[in-house]
Specification:
The chain is of the alpha/beta class. The chain folds into 3 domains: 2-127, 3-Layer(aba) Sandwich (Rossmann fold), CATH 3.40.50.720; 139-331, Alpha-Beta Complex (inorganic pyrophosphatase (n-terminal core)), CATH 3.90.1640; 337-486, Diaminopimelate Epimerase, Chain A, domain 1, CATH 3.10.310.30. The chain contains 18 helices and 18 strands. The strands form 3 sheets. A 6-stranded parallel β-sheet has the order 3-2-1-4-5-6. Strands 9-8-7-10-11-12 form a 6-stranded parallel β-sheet. A 6-stranded mixed β-sheet has the order 13-14-15-16-18-17, with helices on both faces. The chain is globular, with a radius of gyration of 24 Å.
């Protein structure tokens, strides 16, 4: 679930708040206009009467995904923008420039905000949209951009891609090929989940699997699908020039690309690619259409999670071209023995506190068994949030699921594990990766005792984070866990 923080609430801010969708986000408005606060509260909009640029106030707030600086005055918006960027460095910030900006103001806004709303430009853009736009504009812009790229194009999914990423990459590669630009759908890592492998194999999708540190010199341009930043959840260089980004997740920082299409209200990136593909290829390829529909169904959990009207429209567009027999084969693959064993260990080892269940499954060979185990725990009576983790070499992989309305798993895992690894995801579906350097120095007799301590630390950190109020730091286990997760092999004396 996206958390939007609005700092200041002038004319533009007020109009924007009234148009925000209610179903896919949490919202907090901070303004020192007492009358505006009362009006917003009467309309059931969460609002706080305070100075939007107050550092103490910003320090007390939960980390937002998106910040909108929306007062009327340029000077106050600039101050709020400066302090918001300092307090929330990874948030995506949209800032309204205000009515009387100087050149110095414009420079500061451009440097600090991810997007700047300039009233003069906005009026001109609105006139152009009303007089020249058509439903095919997005397709026209993408076509022109693709035609200007140097080939071949590497369409890169996130590591260990899911069906949405796979389908989106295949669709964008097909679009590129249709305008004469050769393209490869590419990924790092493994496709190990049974359904994901079945999707690739049954539909005979031609994907390229990069080895770690693979040379990328043969590609003249790069596109990212289902994620938006190189080096974040992929193994690309962080400074790689990216030509195209198409995603549906809210960005957690600036998106470095020449062509960006972020549809946060879409339930899947496959939904966005379906719209593009319809513009380029009226006769949709059967395999690609089947993959896209499956990608939408998986990412929206059969149209029950963060779904939008656009997802239903995309599904309706795809359905006449889908191979339903193949779709059934993908959705009903046989479970491997190791996956069943992992699920059994999660059930056996679970620790339940209230409606929350956590389980370590010990050493595993397939990390994709973890989300299946988390899904299975969630079906047990009395459980509405599940947390499962396992060990592969010196890494801990975590998968969590929830159907509780008052839980944001993405924020919970970030609070619990950001200082000792990487974590994130959606409100009802999230994951984390933690490195245990100490295991590399341990002998066989020590491993079991170390793993036992690590299991306790991870479980306790998770329960502490989920029981805390949003934004409350986790402190009780910090020292022990940071030592465990950062200890390297000692230098020889």
């Amino acid at each position: 679930m996206v958390f939007r923080l609005v700092l200041g609430c002038g004319t533009v801010g007020r109009q924007t708040i009234g148009r925000l969708p209610e179903c896919d986000s949490r919202l907090l408005v901070v303004t020192d206009d007492e009358q505006t606060v009362e009006t917003l509260r009467d309309e059931s909009v969460p609002a706080r009467d305070a100075d939007p640029a107050d550092p103490a106030l910003l320090e007390s707030l939960e980390r937002p995904d998106i910040v909108f600086v929306a007062g009327d005055r340029t000077d106050r918006n600039r101050l709020a923008l400066e302090r918001a960027r300092d307090r929330f460095p990874t948030a995506s910030i949209v800032a309204y420039l205000g009515g009387k900006p100087t050149e110095e103001d414009r420079t500061a806004f451009d440097e600090l905000a991810d997007r700047v709303v300039d009233p003069e430009l906005a009026i001109g853009d609105a006139v152009l949209r009303e007089t020249t736009s058509s439903p095919a504009d997005a397709g026209i812009r993408l076509r022109r951009h693709l035609q200007g790229l140097e080939g071949p194009l590497a369409v890169v999914m996130h590591d260990n891609p899911d069906p949405d990423a796979i389908a989106s990459a295949v669709a964008l590669a097909e679009i590129a090929e249709s305008v004469g630009l050769s393209a490869d759908p590419c990924y790092f890592g493994r496709i190990s989940h049974q359904e994901n492998r079945a999707m690739v194999n049954v539909l005979d999708l031609d994907l390229r699997n990069f080895e770690p540190n693979a040379s990328l010199e043969e590609y003249g341009s790069f596109a990212l699908v289902d994620h938006s930043r190189p080096g974040v959840n992929d193994q690309l260089p962080e400074d790689l020039h990216v030509d195209i980004v198409i995603d549906h997740h809210p960005p957690r920082g600036p998106v470095p690309s020449d062509y960006v299409d972020l549809r946060e209200h879409a339930g899947a990136t496959s939904t966005v690619l379906t719209e593009y593909l319809e513009r380029f290829e009226p006769a949709l390829d059967r395999a690609v259409a089947t993959a896209l529909l499956y990608g939408i169904r998986v990412d929206t959990d059969e149209f029950t999670r963060e779904v939008s009207a656009a997802d239903f429209e995309a599904a309706a567009t795809l359905w006449p071209h889908v191979d339903t027999d193949v779709l059934r084969q993908i959705e009903q693959p046989s479970l491997e023995g190791e996956t069943l064993e992992t699920i059994a260990r999660a059930i056996k080892n679970r620790e339940q506190r209230g409606s929350v269940a956590a389980a370590s499954v010990g050493r595993i060979g397939d990390r994709d068994a973890l989300p299946q185990a988390a899904d299975r725990l969630l079906t047990m009576e009395g459980v509405d949030t599940s947390f499962v983790f396992g060990f592969i070499e010196e890494m801990v992989f975590v998968s969590a699921r929830s159907r509780a309305t008052d839980v944001d798993l993405g924020e919970t895992l970030r609070d619990a594990f950001d200082r000792i690894g990487s974590a994130g995801g959606h409100a009802d579906m999230a994951g984390a990766q933690l490195e245990i350097g100490i295991l590399g120095t341990a002998d066989d007799e020590q491993v079991d005792s170390i793993v036992s301590v690590v299991e306790e630390v991870i479980t306790d950190r998770f329960f502490e984070a989920i029981e805390s109020q949003p934004g409350t730091p986790v402190g009780s286990y910090t020292q022990t866990s940071e030592v465990l997760f950062s200890l390297e092999e000692p230098e020889a004396e």
